[in-house]
């Protein structure tokens, strides 16, 4: 009768499957693993589970979350092991616990930590990158072009994304290889795609970033409590 | 193996990258050092289409059950992926090992529709494999093709090394046996082909020659040597309960056309519709037992986790123990929230009951296929339904809460006239009248009638194989006529592209002189011809002009019974005499009964099953 909340990873080739594909994948994995998932009532019953947020195609992650409602309780470790046995390479349940909260997982999520790795052409020093990050964080407003498709028409809008950036930090610079960590707005109350950080760094720091060298990895998702970041597993 | 980083970069740029990653649940992975034979199962269309094909899953599982064989899959890359592969000079690779298929022992294409032929060429080219059979060397794979289109293999005679005609579960293993011995013996490609040409069902086109008459018709089709068989007899599996059927199938990551468990309940069809090639070439009818089917269903659900089971056959209603099967499946799986879908169901009171019971969402559309608008024409094509049955079924369906009805027809059927076409309109209007004839409180939803017409394509091994197809102009005129006559907001009329159907007719009944046209069309950029956005009629017409081929010779020309047809050397079990007799009966509108009700003498029981069907 309980709800189990799990953290899982989505890596390697699994980064190429979409959010909807992932939903279908879990639905089938539950059946293969014989996990007693609760179904909704009505003409078209569907299994009751939900994912925290959609991960863009091409992005890997160690910090995805899912709530699963169960028809009858099974041991948490049994749940994890049974599911991992039938999941494809690249998707793995890392941890989990039964939760009591009635608040939906989706509504909890506010921030994501990303690791963004890329190569640059030309020369750049550690100071250059740090200056660029400093400049970005000091700004009150940062405008980027967002392309929206409405009624099959492309609409380009200038949007201020500053409030979507909580923090940026240089982790590694090795020759032309740069790795930064970004804490960005995520979830139903606003979402900033990590791609925009690349655009901003190009614009503000004049960095020449090699487009097909960019690798993005989500480290963790957070809820927010008293301006502190809290793991979805500790949200009660 | 192709470079992982390069592939990664490419995949981040293409639409639906999961088409190209493999590694799905229940796919095979083998150490290539441990296997003797590497087989690439090639489907000449995109992943989502190919993965919906049951034959792929059957042969993939059958071959991979053998430890010494590794069967992998390869699909036609979509145009964005093709661009990337060519740009980075990456040869077409198989999904499992990510290794180029030109290093394999076999590349086996399944030919499900004629309009995929240019994709076969494109895939060979992407794989760096010579397009012409004669240009392939010892290090190249053997290119084999099977599937319904190879009942007339001739248009691909210059391209494919050998064809497998009929059901290949046993045949393919016989070929592998010969191959393994051949590979160890250091003999030539030619010698391998010689040896397998002796196996029933194998056709090696280069061992045959064709001599033509002045008028372009065939004068003689003969083996180049006495050692090759004069007639190629198709293969069938005698007992479906004893043949391999997979108990685990690959579960795709992305949504495919048929994304569910497919249970093949029987092969063949006894109805004898005169336009239908499948109904003739897949004879005789052979059923799987209910016990076997329930067993497969159980295992397949356990191994895939699919949420739906679909029964697969040419005509679900004809399965002799359908009620028992459906009820058992419902009982077995209803608590597990698994849906059941029954395609190709004839609608009578029983089937409506069943549909009601299994419909997950009740008011999805109902599809009827009267095929022709008038009783006269339905009798000509031997479609054994009458208007009264149809009207009654529609009325029942409306009473049960349906309100969306699709009606399928063909235009350009033999002996058709404009009254028959008006009959299509009349039937659609009658359906509408039935709906509004219901008491108001019984009408549910909003009536929507969709009328679709396809353009009739005469196919080999049917009673209409001699018939000259309507010209593109005639088709267009008939479509306009019907469109002008259907003037009702509740009725929508859709029709198929007549130019595409014309081309389909050219290749369906073509001969080996068409190989050069295929290659030329491909050189001009024709591919994905079955996809409306890609089909380029102008390029095809240019191709025919440049290669000196008159496409109407193949599509529109009426043939006499004594003409040697390009596919006459294949024995499907149904005799030419029977086909002629059926065509004569068609002219007079005489029906032929369903052969479950008594033998109609098609010949299949004489040549294949020894007296009984």
Automatic annotation (TrEMBL), chain A:
Residues 4-194 form the DUF2344 domain. This is Radical SAM-linked protein.
From TrEMBL, chain B:
Pfam families: Radical_SAM, Radical_SAM_N2. CDD domains: Radical_SAM (cd01335). One of its GO terms (molecular function) is catalytic activity. Residues 255-497 form the Radical SAM core domain. InterPro entries: CHP03960_rSAM, Elp3/MiaA/NifB-like_rSAM, Radical_SAM_N2, rSAM, rSAM_horseshoe, rSAM_sf. NCBIfam families: rSAM_fuse_unch. This is Radical SAM family uncharacterized protein. It comes from Caloranaerobacter azorensis DSM 13643.
């Amino acid at each position: 009768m309980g709800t189990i909340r799990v953290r899982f990873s989505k890596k390697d080739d699994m980064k190429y499957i979409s959010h909807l594909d992932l939903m279908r994948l879990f639905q089938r994995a539950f059946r293969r693993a014989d996990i007693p998932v609760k179904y909704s009532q009505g003409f078209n019953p569907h299994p009751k589970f939900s994912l925290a947020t959609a991960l863009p195609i091409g992005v890997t992650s160690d910090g995805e979350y899912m709530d699963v409602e169960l028809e009858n309780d099974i041991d948490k470790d049994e749940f994890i092991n049974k599911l991992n046995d039938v999941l494809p390479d690249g998707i793995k349940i890392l941890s989990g616990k039964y939760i009591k909260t009635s608040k939906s997982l989706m509504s909890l999520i506010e921030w994501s930590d990303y690791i963004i790795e890329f190569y640059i052409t030309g020369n750049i020093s550690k100071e250059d990158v740090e200056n660029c990050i400093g400049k970005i964080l000091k700004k009150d407003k940062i405008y980027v072009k967002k392309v929206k498709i409405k009624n099959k028409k492309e609409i380009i809008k200038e949007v201020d994304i500053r409030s979507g950036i909580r923090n940026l930090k240089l982790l590694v610079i090795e020759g032309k290889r740069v790795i930064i960590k970004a804490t960005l707005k995520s979830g139903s109350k606003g979402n900033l795609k990590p791609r925009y950080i690349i655009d901003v760094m190009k614009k503000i720091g004049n960095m020449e970033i090699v487009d097909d060298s960019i690798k993005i990895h989500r480290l963790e998702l957070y809820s927010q409590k008293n301006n502190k970041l809290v793991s979805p597993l500790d949200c009660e | 193996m192709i470079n992982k980083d390069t592939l990664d970069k490419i995949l981040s740029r293409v639409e639906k990258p999961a088409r190209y990653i493999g590694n799905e649940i229940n796919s095979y992975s083998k150490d290539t050092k441990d296997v003797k034979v590497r087989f690439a199962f090639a489907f000449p269309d995109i992943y989502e289409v190919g993965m919906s094909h049951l034959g792929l899953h059957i042969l993939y599982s059958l071959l991979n059950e053998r430890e010494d064989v590794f069967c992998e899959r390869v699909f036609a890359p979509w145009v964005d992926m093709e661009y990337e592969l060519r740009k980075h000079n990456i040869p077409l690779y198989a999904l499992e090992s990510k290794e180029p298929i030109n290093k394999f022992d076999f590349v086996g294409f399944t030919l499900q529709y004629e309009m995929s032929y240019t994709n076969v060429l494109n895939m060979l080219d992407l794989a760096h494999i010579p397009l012409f059979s004669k240009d392939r060397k010892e290090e190249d794979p053997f290119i084999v093709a099977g599937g319904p289109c190879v009942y007339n293999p001739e248009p691909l005679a210059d391209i494919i090394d050998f064809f497998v005609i009929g059901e290949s579960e046993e045949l393919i293993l016989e070929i592998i046996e010969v191959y393994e011995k051949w590979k160890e013996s250091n003999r030539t490609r030619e010698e391998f082909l010689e040896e397998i040409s002796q196996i029933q069902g194998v056709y090696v086109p280069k061992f045959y020659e064709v001599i033509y008459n002045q008028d372009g018709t065939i004068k003689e089709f003969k083996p180049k040597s006495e050692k090759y068989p004069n007639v190629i007899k198709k293969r069938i599996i005698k007992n479906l309960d004893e043949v391999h059927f997979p108990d685990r199938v690959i579960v795709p990551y992305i949504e495919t056309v048929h994304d569910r468990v497919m249970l093949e309940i029987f092969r063949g069809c006894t109805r004898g519709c005169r336009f239908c090639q499948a109904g003739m070439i897949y004879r005789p009818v052979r059923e799987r037992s209910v016990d076997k089917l329930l067993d497969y269903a159980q295992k397949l659900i356990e191994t895939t986790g699919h949420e739906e089971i679909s029964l697969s056959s040419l005509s679900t209603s004809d399965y002799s123990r359908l009620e028992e099967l459906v009820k058992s499946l419902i009982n077995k799986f209803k608590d597990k929230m698994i849906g059941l879908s029954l395609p190709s169901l004839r609608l009578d009171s029983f089937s409506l009951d069943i549909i009601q019971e299994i419909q997950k969402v009740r008011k999805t559309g109902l599809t009827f296929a009267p095929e022709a608008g008038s009783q006269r024409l339905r009798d000509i094509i031997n479609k054994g339904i009458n208007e009264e049955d149809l009207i009654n079924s529609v009325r029942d369906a409306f009473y049960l809460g349906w309100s969306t009805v699709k009606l399928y027809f063909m235009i350009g059927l033999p002996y058709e006239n404009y009254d028959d076409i008006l009959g299509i309109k009349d039937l659609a209007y009658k359906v509408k009248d039935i709906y509004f004839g219901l008491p108001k409180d019984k009408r549910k939803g909003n009536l929507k009638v969709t009328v679709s017409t396809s353009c009739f394509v005469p196919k080999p091994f049917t009673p209409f194989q001699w018939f000259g197809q309507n010209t593109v102009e005639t088709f267009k005129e008939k479509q306009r006529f019907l469109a002008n006559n259907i003037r009702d907001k509740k009725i929508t009329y859709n029709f198929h592209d007549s130019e595409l159907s014309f081309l389909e007719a050219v290749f369906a009944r073509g001969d080996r002189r068409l190989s050069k046209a295929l290659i030329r069309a491909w050189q001009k950029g024709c591919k994905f011809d079955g996809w409306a956005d890609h089909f380029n009629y102008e390029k095809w017409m240019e191709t025919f002009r440049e290669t000196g081929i008159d496409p109407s010779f193949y599509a529109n020309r009426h043939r006499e019974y004594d003409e040697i047809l390009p596919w006459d050397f294949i024995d499907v079990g149904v005799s030419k005499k029977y086909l002629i007799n059926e065509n004569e009966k068609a002219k007079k509108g005489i029906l032929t009964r369903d052969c479950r009700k008594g033998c109609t003498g098609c010949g299949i029981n004489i040549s294949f099953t020894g007296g009984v069907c």
